[in-house]
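Table S2 (continued). Query chain:
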Amino acid sequence: MGFFKRKPTLSTPAVPATDGRPALASAPAGLSSVAVASAGRPVSGSRRVSAVSHRALVKPIVSEKAAALGALRQYVFAVQPRMNKVEIAKVVNALYGVSPVAVNIVNVRGKRVRTGRTQGVRKSWKKAIVTLKAGDSIEVYHGV
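Corresponding output:
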């Protein structure tokens, strides 16, 4: 049955390195070069940052408060609930090419909503406030 063999293999041609150990020509698809050891296997505990970069940051938050924070080199994003500060910093660096000075995270509770007699709760979400060093900027509001 074909769907049991869907695990990707890490077969890449080895290129001889200067110190005699075999080295990789490039990182396997979906893995950053930091997450690959010299033997060609992923380092234990590493996340696939480059493969999930476009999904980690859900969307930029466009609001008055976010615009005011933009003047202070702080940018606001909705992020996946399972992401932590270190992973968010790596994703921002991979996507925008700037290294954040600080990342603050806020878990936003879903609001209670009511339509007639029907009551419910909106989904909770996670917000990240990314602070950049002086001189760096991100074009978040391009085309908005």
